[in-house]
């Protein structure tokens, strides 16, 4: 079940900023683009059985969601969008699928070379962020 089986709580900090962010951000909104331009967030991921919590913290904003894997829930994103979201583990990756106002976005979190790679995809545009574990 991905890294969360090994580590029940994982705190990560942004290592490399978003490749592709300038193409991706306009599709999610102006507020998201402005926040993302200056934010260097930490990410805390916890999993207790089937219950997942993802908390993203920066000096500007803290956003958090909690859900049961495989169950659709209403998420309020960091930029205020209300989405219908579902999270699942697929092929060792944590996949978060969001839908709102006829739009869709998929956020995939996966381990690569000991780092957490987060890929956000919307309309075939990909934004990538890389996090490393905080000791």
UniProtKB/TrEMBL annotation:
The UniProt family comment states: Belongs to the calycin superfamily. Fatty-acid binding protein (FABP) family.
Give GO terms: molecular function aspect only: lipid binding
Per the record, the domain of life is Eukaryota
Protein name in the entry: Fatty acid-binding protein, epidermal
- Which InterPro entries does the protein's record reference? Calycin, Fatty_acid-bd, ILBP
Provide the species name: Heterocephalus glaber (Naked mole rat)
The stretch of residues making up the signal peptide is 1-20
Q: Which UniProt keywords apply?
A: Signal, Transport
């Amino acid at each position: 079940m991905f890294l969360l089986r090994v580590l029940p709580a994982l705190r990560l900090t942004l290592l490399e900023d978003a490749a592709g962010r300038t193409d991706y951000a306009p599709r999610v909104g102006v507020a998201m683009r402005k926040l993302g331009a200056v934010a260097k967030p930490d990410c805390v991921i916890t999993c207790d059985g089937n219950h997942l919590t993802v908390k993203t913290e920066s000096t500007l904003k803290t956003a958090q969601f909690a859900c049961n894997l495989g169950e659709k829930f209403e998420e309020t994103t960091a930029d205020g969008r209300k989405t219908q979201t579902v999270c699942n583990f697929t092929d060792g990756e944590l996949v978060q699928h969001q839908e709102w106002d006829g739009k869709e976005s998929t956020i995939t979190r996966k381990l690569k070379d000991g780092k957490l790679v987060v890929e956000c995809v919307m309309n075939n545009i990909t934004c990538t962020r890389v996090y490393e574990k905080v000791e």
